Amino acid sequence: MMRRVNALALTGLSLLTGLVLWEFAARDISRVVFAPPSAVLTRLAADIASGVLPLALLGSLATLAVGFLLAVVLALPLGFAIGRNAKVAAMADPVLNAIYAVPPVAMVPFLIIWFGLFFEARVALVFLMSFFEILVTVAAGARNVDPMLLAVGRSFGAGRSRLVTRVMLPASLPFVFAALRVGLVRAINAMITAELFLAAVNLGALMKHSAQRFDTAGLLAVIVLLCLVGLAAQAGLKSLEARLLPWHVRQ
Amino acid sequence: MSGNMKYNLLGIAVALAVWELAGRALGADLFAPPTVVFPEYVALLREGQMLRELASSLRQMIVGYGVACLIGIPLGVAMGRSRVCDALLHPWLSMFVVTSVASLVPLFILVFGTGFMFRAAIVFVASIWYVMLTVYHGARGIEPRFIDVGRSFGANRWRAFREILLPALYPYVITAMRIGLVHAIRAMVVAEMFIIVGYGGLIYRAGLSLSTAPLLALLVTLMLVGVAANALLRSGAQLIAPWYERRVVSASATQG
Question: How far is B112 from chain A (nearest CA, A)?
Fold first, then answer.
């Protein structure tokens, strides 16, 4: 108990020190080049109160939701198929590694050619960036399901479908959640990347306007908001995982 | 192993065949097939600009990535082995790991301009947190028994660190460098495409041409760089600690 309190105190201290250093550094160097945290926070509060940021965020999240859901729906079954079949895995491995090595942003010119500059193209980038991340993680997880578990199930007379539903699925859920967490963070990255590299809309448009006016407070307000969204997404999936898979989290 | 190799090659062949068929169906202005990309690729190699830009972009990337490794690896070890360091650094790590590199680009341009510092800084912030995170997980996961055994044979703290902890960490360090490199290359392209310079700028400009062949050729080079660097680091890991490969794979798959 004492340890937890100490750790929390240290964490708070660290964050506070960081903010104070940033504040002084920003004041010393130049407020124009780098806004201090106080200015960023007031700006964040003002932009949230005026409805500009929430509205832009909602627009961005629509892209995120469509692209991410598409990626999950396609990548999960495909990941299992690849992971559970040694031959398919051996065939897919070099191809996936090769595609994975190409930075998704480099695909943006393609997306423009195929989907234009607007919603469809943004969804495509979100899909692309989260799809492979989920696929690779799920395939690795499905491959590493403890063979002992399957053997025990089999020797207790479980058939193929029962093995899948009662043993395979629960055993691979931790990996599925890991894949969803990683994939969601990538999807959020993709969302803002798309809004900056394709037609500037929503949060991306806010950032571009701020950048044109050398308004670092406005830029940092959006960055902080995005960071909070990412942290919230992670925390949400983690608490869902804790509720659904108490055995894994305890380990 | 040779059976596996056979399927690897088969997979590549199937992928190339699918690409060729799709490319022929869609046409070169939508998706150039390999038979069109290959001559284009040879032409780009002959012309030399592609490799020149690649070399200069990679040089700048290496600086940011190298500094990220030099700082990130010790910090990751410190976080993994000391509760105080963990409590102090973890909040920053969690925040920056979810922060999108692209969103930092406009800010970094205002702060650093668009020169060398900008690109190196973007690569640095893009890779350091992943290096730290991976090393942190490795350092945390080291069997306490190893250290106990060392201690009971009379090793002091420093010896236990140097002779037990460090060797156990090597494979994680290599994995961290691999993951960091993936992010470093991505960040390099993000930064360069945004301001249209270097290799990323080349990609951006190739996207404007009528055929997709030059664009695909540029992506193939990038892919080869990524795969080659990865293979190099992987064989390094194999050399240093062959027994860890599996463990590292499952560890890096479960981390957030």
Answer: 9
Residues in A closer than 8 angstroms to B105, CB to CB, are 196
Q: Is the pLDDT of residue B46 over 80?
A: yes
Of A87, A175, A234, Cβ closest to residue B256: A234
Confidence of residue A126 (pLDDT cuts 50, 70, 90): very high
* Nearest neighbour of B110 by CB, restricted to A185, A211, A223: A211
A1 domain residue, yes or no: no
Instruction: State pTM to two decimals.
Output: 0.88
pLDDT at A166: 79
Amino acid B8: pLDDT? 87
Domain annotation covers residue A14: no
Chains A, B: CB pairs < 8 Å = 178
- Taking contacts as CB-CB distances below 8 angstroms, the residues of chain B near A202 are none
Q: At what angle do helices A52-84 and A216-244 cross, to 10 degrees?
A: 40
Mean pLDDT for chain A overall: 86
User: What is the average pLDDT value for chain B, to the nearest integer?
Assistant: 86
Q: How many independent structural domains does chain A possess?
A: 1
Nearest to A226 among B29, B103, B203 (CB): B103
A223–B185 CB contact, under 8 Å: no
ipTM of the shown complex: 0.86
Express each pLDDT in B136-191 by its tens digit. 998 888 777 777 787 788 777 788 777 788 888 888 888 899 899 999 999 999 99
Q: Which domain holds residue A211?
A: 40-250
Residue B254 banded pLDDT, cuts 50, 70, 90: very low
Residue to mutate among A57, A60, A91, A182, with most B CBs inside 10 A, is A91
- In this complex, do B11 and A102 lie within 8 Å of one another by their Cβ atoms? no
B195: closest chain A residue by CA:
A197
- B230 → closest Cβ in A8, A101, A214: A101
pLDDT at position A28 over 80: no
Contacts of B254 in chain A (CB under 8 A): 174-175, 178
Say whether residue A147 is in contact with chain B using an 8 A CB cutoff: no
Domain-embedded: residue A3:
no
Residue of A87 and A74 predicted with greater confidence: A74
CATH code: domain B32-254 is: 1.10.3720.10
State whether A108 and B207 contact (CB < 8 Å).
yes
* pLDDT exceeds cutoff 50 at A32: yes
